[in-house]
Amino acid sequence: MADFLLSFFTPILFFVSYNLIMIPIYIGQYSFFEQYKIQRHRVWPWFDERQNSRDEFWKLTIRSIKITSFNLLVLLPALTCLKIVLQKTLLPPNEFLFSTDDEHWPTPYENGRDIMKLSLIHEFGFYVTHKMSHTYPALYKYHKVHHEYKCNWTMASQHNHPIDYILSIGGPAVLALGLVSQAHSMSQFQWILWTMYANLDDHVGYSFPWSPVRWFPFSAGTSEHEFHHSINVGCFGSKLSIYNSLFGGYERYNKSIINNQQDQNKKKTLT
Ligand SMILES: [Zn+2]
Ligand SMILES: [Zn+2]
Question: Which processes are annotated in GO (biological process) (predicted)?
Fold first, then answer.
């Protein structure tokens, strides 16, 4: 029960809190935060001068509230139950990963090792399923719901068709937690928090330099997923850069960075 509550309520609490923190920032348009906005050439859709664009945005937001509620309140508990049953099946009998005694509590090494394993497996699963969703029309018809957002804000983070949610969000997470089933619940909890933070950070629309999910080696930048939403090509990863670098995904993104730099240099020489 404790494992279920921790795995189920934490993402919901995190999602609600993150949105509550971000909404005043989005509305306030403070220059301190706006300097980190990724798509600076685009106005935030709720401030768009065109009435029809604002109407479309609010329609999409209402759809997001419905889709997100279903994903977090129906699919997430179902996937959490699946995770618990899977881990119970895979672990030796009487192995109880919620014990806080010295024998079960993970050492800093075990904790770091298991979080790293979970991240590598999850990211691989996400990269593969996400790339497949853009390759095969039979899958893209579900994934295109997530791509209704061309300019992200935090409500885009869980805006996935239920089939897309099971395939690319829940599937890789259950796979990672199944393969690293010996990870202590506290390690799993830290990893779920980190994954949820990265998911929200991917869709926040700002590239905050202080973001705790972007500072370590091989981490992917927030601008990569924003680029993916803006043109629907490449950057198939989420938190890590390794699989895009190894198996492809950065071609168009790198070109766009070079083009932007050339444009900026041209502007500088003209002024
Ligand atoms: Zn996509
Ligand atoms: Zn996205």
Answer: lipid biosynthetic process
Is 30 a domain residue? Answer: yes
Nearest ligand, measured from the Cα of 126: 1
Centroid of ligand 1 to alpha carbon of 150 (angstroms)? 11
- Residues 41 and 21: their CA atoms lie apart, in Å, by 24
**Cα gap 143→146, rounded to integer Å:** 6
CB-based contact 142:133 (threshold 8 Å): yes
pLDDT tens digits for 79-112?
988 888 888 888 776 666 677 777 778 899 999 9
Tens digit of pLDDT for each residue in 205-236? 999 999 988 888 888 888 889 899 988 888 99
User: Domain for residue 111, yes or no?
Assistant: no
- Which listed ligand is nearest to 202 at the C-alpha? 2
Domain extent at residue 201: 2-91+124-270
pLDDT tens track for 165-212: 999 999 999 999 889 888 888 898 899 999 999 999 999 999 999 998
Average of per-residue pLDDT values in the chain: 89
Q: How far is the CA of 147 from the centre of ligand 2 (A)?
A: 7
**168 within domain boundaries:** yes
CA of 202 to the centre of ligand 2 (A): 7
105 in a domain, yes or no? no
Q: What is the pLDDT of residues 46-59, one digit of tens each?
A: 998 999 999 999 99
For residue 197, how far is its CA from the centre of ligand 1 (angstroms)? 18
